[in-house]
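Researcher: Sequence recovery benchmark, item below. Answer with residues only.
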């Protein structure tokens, strides 16, 4: 520089050559307004602000970038603190939006990678398409989601919540209550091995006898996880559902069929999950739920009968003999 000439008399680009007007990826304001849009009297006077900026860094970007996209009730921490240069290069970048690096690497500067690289990965997370689901600056929804129904931007809404009975978390759009939106060590991106028990009390599934699907954790053997046209989210109405495992011929076809069996009311006698008595019975005195116990106290025609003895003489489901007797 010649003696006596100030820096302001020379073009900034003579020294800062990476910011030459017309450079690909240059911040548009440098092309249109020049360096003094953000810097004032650089190198010609003591710094009042960092880098001779015309305003404090937290206030500078919002002079141009202050639209609706930055004013939502839920704000990304860097945007809220106006640390714009955490994600964006203020001068030039070969990446879109002047980003300092591409997502998801940019996101991993703050968010731990481990949560995104478990065995089963959600497609947008695996592709690094963070912005398919999240807004980068601010929004109206928790977690900066682009939409309350963001999952249905890819997944068929009618195929998940279009039937008569909808699982409560699905109806409330709480997909992430059951599925991890990024990655999981479990199939279907499930958040837990005992997922159902996060809402349903385990005590209701414990007893003297426990139904095999319950014991093995196979809740979806009988229930649909999202929706169904059948109460209790059952995959099929009872007794058809029961016959997917139990042999139907053992419950129909003989001359005399026990009324609850004939009417398909399996759960009148059996608890579908766990029973207080053997064979998933709700009580040891299950027969006396319908039959008058006084008739079996020994004062009438019948001998005194312990309720546990009933099935010694009677088949509880069907028989070719009167009164469901096992033999004539």
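Model:
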């Amino acid at each position: 520089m010649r003696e006596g000439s100030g820096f302001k008399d020379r073009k900034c680009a003579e020294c800062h050559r990476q910011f030459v007007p017309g450079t690909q990826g240059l911040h548009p304001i440098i092309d249109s307004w020049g360096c003094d849009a953000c810097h004032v009297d650089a190198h010609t006077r003591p710094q009042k602000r960092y880098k001779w900026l015309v305003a404090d860094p937290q206030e500078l970007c919002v002079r141009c970038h202050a639209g609706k996209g930055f004013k939502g009730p839920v704000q990304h921490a860097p945007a809220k603190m106006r640390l714009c240069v955490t994600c964006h290069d203020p001068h030039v970048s070969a990446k879109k939006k002047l980003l300092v690096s591409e997502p998801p690497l940019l996101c991993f500067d703050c968010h731990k990678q481990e949560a995104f690289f478990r065995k089963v990965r959600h497609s947008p997370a695996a592709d690094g398409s963070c912005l398919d689901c999240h807004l980068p600056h601010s929004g109206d929804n928790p977690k900066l989601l682009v939409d309350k129904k963001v999952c249905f931007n890819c997944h068929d809404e009618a195929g998940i919540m279009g039937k008569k009975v909808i699982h409560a978390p699905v109806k409330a759009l709480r997909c992430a209550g059951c599925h991890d939106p990024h990655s999981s060590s479990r199939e279907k991106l499930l958040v837990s091995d005992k997922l159902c028990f996060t809402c349903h009390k385990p005590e209701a599934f414990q007893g003297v006898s426990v139904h095999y699907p319950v014991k093995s954790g196979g809740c979806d053997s009988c229930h649909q996880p999202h929706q169904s046209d059948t109460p209790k989210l059952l995959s099929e109405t009872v007794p058809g559902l029961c016959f997917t495992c139990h042999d139907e011929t053992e419950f129909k076809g003989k001359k005399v069929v026990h009324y609850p069996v004939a009417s398909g009311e399996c759960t009148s006698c059996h608890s579908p999950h766990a029973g207080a008595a053997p064979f998933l019975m709700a009580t040891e005195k299950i027969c006396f739920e319908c039959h008058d116990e006084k008739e079996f106290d020994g004062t009438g025609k019948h001998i005194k009968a312990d309720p546990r003895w009933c099935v010694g003489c009677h088949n509880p489901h069907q028989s070719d003999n009167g009164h469901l007797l096992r033999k004539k």
